[in-house]
Structure formats: C-alpha cells, structure tokens
C-alpha cells in the first residue's frame, strides 16, 4: 500500500517524499581532454634493402660518412613504445614519394604485424596520392589508403598531395571538387581518419607588412631566434617531397585549405627544428592553432620532458596550445623514456595526460 500511495502522489504532481524522494543529481566536473604523446617512426629501406627506422637532422638521415642512421626494426620499436605508454604510434614511410606504394609489400607487412601487437591508434603516412604504375595503370589515392587501412592503420597522413590539393583549391576560387585525396578518403572513412602532415621551413623577412604571407614575430626569450640579419619576423613555407621542393603556400593557407577539404588533424613538423633537441617551434604551433579549428600535433625538436609541457601548455600561458606532441629521436636513442615524459607532465599538473 505504501508504494501505491507514493505512486499516487507522484501522479498527482507532488512527487515522492521521504525515503522515496529522489536525491538531486550530483554536479559533474568537466575535465579537459587529455593531451597525447605520440611516438613516430620514420621508416625507409637501408642500403641493403631492409626496412629500418631512421631519423634525420633537418631531414638528413645519413651520418657524416654517408651511411643511413639505423635505429632498429619498425615493429619491435613500435611495440616498445606501446608498452611504455604511447597514446598513438605513427609510421612515416619517408621515401614513399618516389615509390609505388601499392607494390610496397614490406611496409604493408610492417603495418599488419604492428596491428597484431599494438592496441593504440596507428597512423601511417607516405606516398598517399594518385599515380600511374609501371604497367600504365592509374592508381587512385583512395586505393592507397584502402590498402593501409586493410593492413591495420587507423589514420593516414597525407603530405605533398595535400599541398597540391590546397594549391588547386585556391586556384579554383575555393571550389570543392570531391576528387582530392583528402576529400575521397574523408568521405569514405571520416575526417578523423585523415591527418595532414606539414613540412614547413622558416623564411625570415624584414618587413611583415610588405610580405604577402602570414608572418609571426620571432626573437623572444627562449623562442625562435632572430634571422641571420637580425630579422624579427618570419613566415613558414610549406614544402613537398620531404622538404626537397618549396611551395608558394604558408602554413596558415595550408591549414585553412585542408580543413575545408575535410582533414581531421594536422601534424606540424619543422625542418629547422628537426633533430636539434632545442624544443618545438612554438610560434609555428600557435599560429596554426589560431588559424583553424582542427587538433594540432606538435612535432620536431623535442629534447627533454620540459619541451613537451611547453608545446602542450595553453597559448595564453606562453605554450604552444598543441593537442598532442610527437617525438622520435629522443625515444629511439633512449635519451628520454616515453614514460618519463608522461610522469613529468603528470607531476607538473598543468597538462592532463593518460596513464
């Protein structure tokens, strides 16, 4: 009977009382999204034809004597980083721009083996473009991406082809054709599956007003140095083919174009910082982060745990404001364990990370 009385009062609009009353819902604390630490493996064939992990200094992967730097086997290193707590693992096939990707069975096998052992998102980049093979058959960029996804990739990273697509986008009056690699892949797999990798280099200018590109101020304490002639401003020129060819686009133009085309994330390398261990190019990260709404991954230059916290800290506090930080050489050479980076971020208490 007591239950019927409670129900009757509820139906009459009074609601339950006493022990049957429903307690108010507790207030929820909204936590900021965790920042990601990504291990990157630059993969290419060594002089004997075996796939190895290498690392460049300003994109030069060879020692003084000419031999290729060899940091080990791709799958073994990737599994190590997964065990150490990497939030994601990225494979960059750094010579794929001159190879026929669908015929690159060793790289596809690396992905298959990694996917069996590593249970965090895997990104693969290199050679994702439309091309004509030796038989004269045209292969679409989507077919290349299909092969990578079937082999176990969660995301693909597009480099030079994205620069070409951005050029066409602006030349056509910002028309979306639906035929670029970014559009094709994001339409089929979702924009979260498409990362665009930037390979910019610094171009110093004396007068930003007369420069047609988007400039940043440099020379601040602990930041990017002044130019060779004391220049206080620079813009970032987007390159193609692993830094071998300059374009007429700056990073702001590229970021805004690829966002419109359907990219879901941006990987910001910096040729000037690559392998230097002097910290990320925070001016670059802040500029791109302010120019678009996409998540931004800071890359190139990490030399100590403090560099990660600087890249991931909010821009308003002098940081880069990046959503993730990627590193390679310091992990390959065991200079800084990946776990030590996460421990530093946790102890500093300013950047939320996963453990």
Automatic annotation (TrEMBL):
Any single biological process term in GO: L-histidine biosynthetic process
Pfam families given in the database record: His_biosynth
Documented EC number(s): 4.3.2.10
UniProt-recorded name of the protein: imidazole glycerol-phosphate synthase
InterPro entries linked: Aldolase_TIM, His_biosynth, HisF, IGPS_HisA/HisF, RibuloseP-bd_barrel
Reaction(s) catalysed (UniProt annotation): 5-[(5-phospho-1-deoxy-D-ribulos-1-ylimino)methylamino]-1-(5-phospho-beta-D-ribosyl)imidazole-4-carboxamide + L-glutamine = D-erythro-1-(imidazol-4-yl)glycerol 3-phosphate + 5-amino-1-(5-phospho-beta-D-ribosyl)imidazole-4-carboxamide + L-glutamate + H(+)
GO MF terms held by the record: imidazoleglycerol-phosphate synthase activity; lyase activity
Top-tier EC class: lyase
Cited Gene3D superfamilies: Aldolase class I
Keywords assigned: Amino-acid biosynthesis, Histidine biosynthesis, Lyase
Family from the record: Belongs to the HisA/HisF family.
SUPFAM superfamilies found in the cross-reference section: Ribulose-phoshate binding barrel (SSF51366)
UniProt pathway: Amino-acid biosynthesis; L-histidine biosynthesis; L-histidine from 5-phospho-alpha-D-ribose 1-diphosphate: step 5/9
């Amino acid at each position: 009977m007591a239950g019927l009385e409670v129900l009757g009062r509820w139906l009459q609009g009074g609601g339950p009382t006493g022990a049957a009353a429903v307690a108010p819902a507790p207030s929820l604390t909204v936590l900021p999204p965790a920042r990601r630490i990504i291990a990157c493996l630059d993969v290419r064939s060594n002089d004997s034809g075996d796939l190895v992990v290498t690392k460049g200094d300003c994109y030069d992967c060879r020692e003084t004597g000419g031999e290729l730097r060899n940091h080990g086997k791709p799958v073994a290193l990737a599994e190590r980083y997964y065990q150490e707590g990497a939030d994601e693992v990225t494979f960059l096939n750094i010579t794929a721009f001159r190879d026929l990707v669908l015929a690159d069975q060793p790289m596809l096998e690396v992905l298959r083996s990694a996917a069996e052992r590593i249970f965090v998102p895997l990104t693969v980049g290199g050679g994702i473009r439309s091309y004509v093979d030796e038989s004269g058959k045209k292969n679409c960029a989507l077919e290349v991406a299909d092969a990578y996804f079937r082999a176990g990739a969660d995301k693909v990273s597009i480099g030079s082809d994205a620069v070409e697509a951005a050029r066409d986008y602006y030349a056509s009056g910002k028309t979306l054709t639906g035929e670029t690699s970014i559009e094709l892949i994001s339409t089929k797999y979702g924009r979260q599956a498409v990362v665009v990798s930037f390979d910019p280099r610094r171009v110093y200018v004396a007068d930003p007003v007369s420069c047609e590109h988007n400039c940043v101020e440099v020379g601040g304490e602990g930041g990017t140095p002044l130019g060779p002639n004391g220049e206080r401003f620079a813009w970032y020129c987007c390159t193609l083919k692993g830094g071998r060819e300059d374009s007429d686009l700056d990073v702001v133009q590229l970021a805004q174009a690829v966002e419109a085309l359907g990219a879901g994330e941006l990987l910001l390398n910096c040729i000037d910082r690559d392998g230097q261990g002097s910290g990320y190019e925070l001016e670059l990260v802040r500029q791109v982060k302010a120019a678009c709404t996409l998540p931004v991954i800071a890359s190139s230059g990490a030399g100590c745990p403090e560099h990660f916290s600087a890249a991931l800290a909010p821009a308003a506090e002098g940081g880069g404001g990046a959503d993730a930080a990627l590193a390679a050489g310091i992990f390959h050479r065991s200079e800084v364990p990946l776990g030590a980076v996460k421990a530093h971020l946790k102890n500093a208490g300013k950047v939320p990370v996963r453990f």
